[in-house]
Write a structure and sequence with these properties.
The chain is mainly alpha-helical. It has one domain. The protein has eleven helices and no strands. The protein is globular and about 45 Å long. About 4% of the residues have low confidence. It is found in: Cell membrane. Pfam families: TauE (PF01925).
């Protein structure tokens, strides 16, 4: 692996700020950590950066679960997990063969597409249909978002915005959104660890850098917990969508 200790003090400061933003995103504005993803990919080689970031995300997931564990909607999670598993496998295969440029461009395009679809759905109410048709549509949506979420979270730790778009489109309010998202990513990110180790993305060096950065996640999570009660639902949704678009653009244009 690239000598990740060859970073400058300014580089470490940027990584620390990105780790703080991970904590904030996990307890306040899910999807904002795409900015953290871009910072890590800018300071470290893009492929290796995903292995360094994953344990930091898992620590943030633990803090989010401790904060919002009672607000998860488990039927939604069980509906998503099979498709997500397929997406993780596809992402692992893609990551084994694709270069950094292909990874960044693919994820950036997917994030922007998801944001566009969500904005379109919010402006255009869906036509009423039968209950059976609605059920089929809900299953198809869960399947498509699940595969995309699994794929993007495996190749670039960028599943947050995809799942944010799904949960917003499903009508989740703030606490249900954050609780469901917290459990989802704790389970999915933990399941990704063996794949990342197998690909050589997590090793002793990356874990030592994680140990130096993980402490910055805690103040970010505390700031997020304080801020979320002061953000109304409409602003919350706008911030999630804006973070998704920003993260997608950063990946696509870098």
């Amino acid at each position: 692996m690239h000598d990740i200790f060859g970073i400058t003090p300014w580089g470490f400061t940027a990584l620390a700020a990105a780790a703080l933003l991970v904590g904030f995103s996990k307890t306040a504005v899910s999807g904002a950590n795409t900015v953290s993803l871009a910072v890590f990919a800018a300071i470290l080689p893009a492929r290796e950066s995903t292995g360094v970031l994953l344990p930091i995300l898992i620590f943030g997931d633990i803090l989010a679960v401790l904060t919002y564990r009672r607000h998860a909607h488990w039927p939604t999670l069980w509906r998503l997990f099979p498709a997500v598993a397929g997406g993780v496998v596809l992402g692992t295969v893609f990551l084994a063969f694709a270069g950094d440029g292909a990874v960044r461009s693919s994820i950036g395009a997917i994030l922007l597409l998801m944001a566009g679809v969500t904005l379109w759905r919010r402006r255009k109410a869906e036509a009423p249909g039968s209950e059976e048709t609605a059920t089929r549509a809900a299953r198809a949506k869960a399947g498509s978002y699940g595969v995309l979420g699994g794929f993007t979270t495996m190749v670039a730790n960028a599943g947050g915005p995809v799942m944010s778009m799904y949960l917003l489109s499903a009508g989740f309010r703030k606490l249900g959104f954050l609780g469901t998202s917290a459990w989802f990513f704790l389970i999915v990110n933990s399941a990704k660890v063996p794949f990342s180790v197998g690909l050589g993305l997590i090793d002793g060096r990356s874990l030592l850098l994680d140990a130096a950065l993980v402490a910055f996640v805690v103040p970010g999570a505390l700031i997020g917990k304080w801020a979320v009660n002061r953000i109304n639902q409409r602003l919350f949704e706008r911030l999630v969508i804006a973070a998704t678009i920003l993260g997608g653009l950063q990946l696509l244009l870098r």
